[in-house]
Amino acid sequence: MPNPLTRAQQMENAAFLRHLRKTGNATAAARALGAPPCRFHRRRARHPDFAVRWDAALVVAHAALSGDGTGATARHAAEPQIWSIKGGNRQLRRAKAGLVDHAARQNFLAALSATANVSLSAAAGRHAASTFYRLRHRNPAFAREWQLALEMGYERLKMSLMEGWQPGSFADDDWRHNDPPAVPRMTANQALQLMYLHQKEALMGATPEAMRRRRGESAGAASMRLALLHEAHQEREALKYRIAEAERLARGEPTYHRWAPGELPDLSQVTGWSRASGKPATDDTRALFGGWRVKDIPKGKPKG
Q1: Is residue 169 part of a domain?
Q2: Which residue in 75, 80, 77, 73 sits closest to 128, CA to CA?
């Protein structure tokens, strides 16, 4: 997993994608920001989330520049098509206006591999979604490519979500870096009522809907529910730590769980290896921690 993008890089990416959705030209979008295009191409290669957003922006741009997405404004030279004629023979004919040609199919499949959205991909292909559904039903080869493109789009979206879920992702943390808005005027009674209503959720976390206590709940079910709530609380505490670690790394500060050489004490100086009143272990060939063993206890020493 590459290093997460900084907040400045996230804001720069957002501005780049806004220009890309308008023009469909990555070079022009980069130059509009005064940045070299190679900078964004490197980020695209390293960060799946940015790559998915890049392709989705191109799909939106192509759909907008192509017209209303129904094929009414498409005025391009269509490729010849194979038609059935009498006697079961085939013939190559000039395509009629409005048919889905090779370029439209490729635009649709490329958009589908980037978004996993059929309606948006159909707009990029300059035809209605129902047209592509009919084509998939008639053309097994196109149906196969549709399935492969959909699987690729699903995997890319999954990788994008996984990257966004990382605590080191700064895509949605703008609110934590701004001054909070002023509290509206309210009476002391209103403030206490709000604190009472949100006390459990703010301090202990919201109870999952499936784990809310119900009438007739058995002791075993209640115990399981409490155990799950405890695990959820532990996970929230661990998430707070991971977020703090990610912010420390972004500031260039050392983390708490990394030990520099020489910081740990020499473990050979630690006493208390044996439980036998400070005496050394009686058997040097055995591991420590054992203390006296029954067979080595001197005569006259009380057992137990």
Answers
A1: yes
A2: 73
In a domain, 233, yes or no: no
Q: What is the pLDDT of residue 77?
A: 39
Domain count, the chain: 1
Residue with tokens 């009919």: 134
Stronger pLDDT, 170 or 153, i.e. the higher one: 153
Burial class (CB in 10 A: 0-12, 13-18, 19+), 48: buried
pLDDT band at 36 (very low <50, low <70, confident <90, very high): very high
Output DSSP code: residue 176.
G
Q: Is 58 domain-assigned?
A: yes
CA distance 59 to 108: 9
CA distances from 296 to 275, 278, 280, 304 (A): 14, 16, 12, 13
User: Can you give the residue range of the structural domain that contains 166?
Assistant: 7-74+99-174
What does pTM read for this prediction? 0.49
Sorted by sequence, the CB contacts under 8 Å of residue 16 that are 6+ apart come out as 29, 30, 33, 35, 40
